[in-house]
């Protein structure tokens, strides 16, 4: 079900980017978020094609999986509409950063 969900979302992202390109025309490429969306959709399609046609050898190409993580960056576009959620996530990120350095300190003291 994960592969099916990923394929459906890829089609939805493609349709969304296509509709924005149709509406905004030349202004579309002036926004860096749109460039990021096109990049994400392109890597998604490339990954989909490689998985479908090459098969198990495509799983060795882990570089494309790294670019899938960039999809999370798309969520930050919506944070400007929810300032409370944005503050909560920034606080969580700060806490994770502090815990990372705490873990490094503990590991340093143990070794």
The N- to C-terminal Cα distance equals 44 Å
Separate helix tally: 5
The pLDDT mean sits at 82
Record field, number of beta strands: 0
**Structure classification:** mainly alpha
Sheet of most strands: none
Shape label: flat
Using the CA coordinates, give the radius of gyration: 19 Å
Amount of beta strand: under 5%
Helices and strands, in N-to-C order?
HHHHH
What are the segments in which pLDDT stays under 50 over at least 5 consecutive residues?
none
Helix content: over 70%
Describe the structure.
This protein is mainly α. It is built from 5 helices and no strands. The longest helix is centred in the last third of the chain and has 28 residues, at 83-110.
Main features:
111 residues, mainly alpha, 79% helix
Summarize it:
With 111 residues, the protein is mainly α. It contains 5 helices and no strands.
Write the layout of secondary structure elements.
Layout: H1 2-24, H2 32-53, H3 63-68, H4 71-79, H5 83-110
Helix pairs in contact: 1-2
